[in-house]
Amino acid sequence: MTGDRVAAARPLDPPRDGVRVEVELTDLPLDVGRAHAAVLHPEAGGVGLFSGVVRDHHEGAAVASLTYEAWDEEARIAMRAVADEVAAAFPGVRCVYVGHRIGALAVGEVSVICAASAPHRDEALAAATALIDRVKAFVPIWKHEFLADGRDRWPGSDRC
Fold first, then answer.
1. If you average pLDDT over residues 133-154, what whole number do you get?
2. 17-153 is classed in which CATH architecture?
């Protein structure tokens, strides 16, 4: 992150005619209602939406808070690539939204939102699931957990 606050999603060129894609990487709270509104489309009868929330435990330890760090521009590029791939993989998808928080988050705060709309719910839900799976696998965003016992760790690495 370059240190600047990024508040709004940035619509970019669609991956194919008629598909709207928005990605958002921000240190401001994510808004599930705004993400839902971002994927509404007159041809879409279904919206699949996943929101990830900071939980109070992970891998057997109590979590007090966490911080997400990202390689800002590379994360945005990867988020856009993931959104484009999912839009291409699901021909009925009309709109896609991917948002991720960076910075310090408390238990209960929304950390990631993936949403997609399509004419039917099955495709919208499958696209939203594919979005979150690919974001977690391919976007360079790292989680630093602060545990209730005073320790900290980086899940997925050997640093602790």
1. 96
2. Alpha-Beta Complex (3.90)
